[in-house]
Write a structure and sequence with these properties.
Blueprint: E1 2-6, H1 7-17, H2 38-45, E2 50-56, H3 59-70, H4 75-95, E3 102-106, E4 113-118, H5 121-128, E5 133-138, E6 141-145
Antiparallel strand pairs: 1-6, 2-4, 2-5, 3-4
Helix pairs in contact: 3-4
Length: 146
């Protein structure tokens, strides 16, 4: 029997197994710029809307959170602080997007990701030009065999 799971759940599970959502563990590493699959660009060129999971670089937030934790900040307060920082990061990214080119479908308040719908290649290019974007993934169902 096969089960279907949204890609975001599978990505979250795999991300947690691999140690979190941030791409780089060392400040000296410079991640490659995020890209989108050719099929996404083709669909946008044909006028289709495309839904993508966008993953943000939260390594600076994680590093600062670790310092706050070492200084004795309580877990609940730390979680609220982290969510506020993620919200500010997402707001900053969205503020740099061309008007009416992207719709927010889900913000995932506690995760360094959002679920966005792009109306044009122009909107996706503007997103991928930002250094805080690690990757984008198509929203697809993943079938897992039992």
């Amino acid at each position: 029997m096969m089960k279907c799971f949204p890609a975001i759940l599978v990505a979250g599970f795999l991300g947690s197994l691999l140690g979190g959502w941030s791409g780089s563990t060392q400040a000296a590493e410079k991640p490659a710029p995020a890209t989108a699959p050719a099929a996404v660009w083709e669909r946008l060129a044909q006028g289709e809307k495309v839904q993508l999971v966008v993953v943000f670089d939260d390594s600076a937030i994680k590093a600062e959170a670790e310092k706050k934790k070492q200084r004795g900040m309580e877990e609940d307060a730390l979680q609220h602080w982290r969510q506020a920082r993620l919200a500010a990061l997402k707001k900053q990214v969205l503020s740099r997007m061309p008007a009416r080119q992207v719709d927010v479908l889900n913000r995932y308040d506690a995760l360094p990701m959002m679920f966005l719908q792009f109306r044009s290649a122009r909107g996706l290019k503007a997103l991928l030009a930002q250094k805080t974007i690690i990757n984008v993934y198509e929203d697809q169902q993943v079938h897992l065999a039992q």
